[in-house]
Amino acid sequence: MEQPFPYLQFRNVTKFFGDVPVVKEPFNLSIPAGQFTVFLGPSGCGKTTLMRMIGGLDTPTSGEILLQGTPVGAPDIRRGMVFQSYSSFPWLTVRKNIEFGLRFRKDLSSGQKRDRAEHFLKLVGLGDFATSYPSRISGGMRQRVAIARTLAADPDVLLMDEPFGALDASLREDLQFELRKIQKSSRKTTIFVTHDVEEAVFLADRIIVFGSRPAHVIADIDVTSLIGAERNETVRDSEQFFHLRTEILHRLRGRCVKAVAA
Ligand SMILES: Nc1ncnc2c1ncn2[C@@H]1O[C@H](COP(=O)(O)OP(=O)(O)OP(=O)(O)O)[C@@H](O)[C@H]1O
């Protein structure tokens, strides 16, 4: 049944930091439930600011952001966020860090919480480090702890700001693959910020491509219709993937493209 309003919506949003316009022209965007949307654009164009406003960490200067028709307020457990930097708690073990994400889940028994934490611990490849403290593991591993903690909490909307930026290439590809799989099976509405074109194409159902600040949309791309919904190890080698990646790179450099809709 069609919903009377978009699941997540930016309505006439602008954002200024003092005199600095980050979003100058009123920004409008509707995101349906369950979509994996990637915000792609050059450094400093305003992607993070737009995402922080969804999370309630920044407020629009004008306009509003609506979740299921209601303006978003301060951060809450419905919106789970993973940032660029490693946000693990140094005084808790890796396992306890992940269980921490479940502290508000009154619907789960402590045994269920432990099992769920264990599941996500293994999913991010940290099964052998459950009792380690963050100071004893690498930066990339700490980032995986933060990702597992947020996924385990099972928020309605997953907001991810370059969460794989610090990881080595092979682990990054593994986690992209896992994230896409988890997102499809959970149908969790996801906004993922990156400036990496290949990462964007691999993960997204839809890519919003931004030009440099003030944030403005230069393309809104239905990735699934161009490369299909299946994202496995071989998709990166496909002709469609190659073409889409090249076209987006050209568009970011300001050259004209054919197959990508504006
Ligand atoms: N709290 C703030 N006060 C003043 N200016 C800010 C603040 N936060 C962000 N900005 C500015 O807003 C602009 C957009 O920043 P933002 O972090 O949203 O960009 P981004 O596209 O996510 O960049 P990156 O990919 O480098 O993280 C930048 O020019 C930045 O310096």
UniProtKB/TrEMBL annotation:
Keyword Transport: yes
Keyword Transport part of the UniProt annotation: yes
PROSITE patterns: ABC_TRANSPORTER_1, ABC_TRANSPORTER_2
One Pfam family here: ABC_tran
Classification via Gene3D superfamilies: P-loop containing nucleotide triphosphate hydrolases (3.40.50.300)
Chain ranges of the ABC transporter domain: 8-237
One term of GO molecular function: ATP binding
Protein name: Nitrate ABC transporter ATP-binding protein
Keywords: ATP-binding, Nucleotide-binding, Transport
